[in-house]
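Target chain:
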Amino acid sequence: MAGLPGITAGYLIRGDRPCLVETGTSTSAPVVRDALHHLGVGPGDLATVVVTHIHLDHAGGVGDIARAFPNAEIVVHEKGARHLADPSRLMASARMVWGDKLDVLFGDLSPTDAHRIRALGDTGSIDLGGGRRLDSHYSPGHAKHHVGLIDSQTGDLYVGDAAGVYLPATDDLRPATPPPDFDLDTALASLALFRSLDPARLLFSHYGPVGAVPQALERSAEELRVWTALTRQARADGLDLDHAVAMVRDRTRSRYRAQQSDDASAEVAETLSGVASNVAGIMHWLDRTEKP
């Protein structure tokens, strides 16, 4: 993503019905396609493509991957399905937020034929073959079209962005609270749901597997509370968004090794979980739910 490795993960579940979880951006789609071919998954072999939500770093490559693998069913929560069939509104909104950076970071989401899309409700199941399932659980808070996915055989839980952003190089775990959908109470409830599923591992879309499940989920909840408390304080002090971002960046710097580094890890952290985006999302939630 954006020329940086180790940012966004796509996961191949091997089996009787091979399944790809997350496509990454459209600019990453050729990398994903070639990797699948290298692993022996030809154009007619992929049975399912499922995305945890429709943000462009997770689902931006859906249209391209759907064309490359014409037999694959595309699975998404029902609140995101129409945007995969007709991404014009989603792309217009993204262009307003990102401007010219959109082309570098994400590229364009191509439409997917509506008849190939299966929309999930608050729970659902994806057949992986041989009695194995990928069970979907609605987990908003980060986004209203977000699901977590747990493998019935391995216990692996694909957490999308609902548990935040994990940076394996520095062992940092940062929140992901962008506007307009972030809701603290809903986000914490999603983490509680994940705990109740008793997963064996958390598979982060950003980036990679984490085996210490209870500790990681508790840390995710702590990060949400810390960032929300700091943003609430900035709002109570009457700071505008730019000054609130500066304050939160300064007061969270010591929490993350990546932010104390001079190498590319700081750039990766900001690309995946930008302070400005996180604070704006929390501010938006506070403006909806709390009086100034």
Summary: The mean pLDDT is 93.
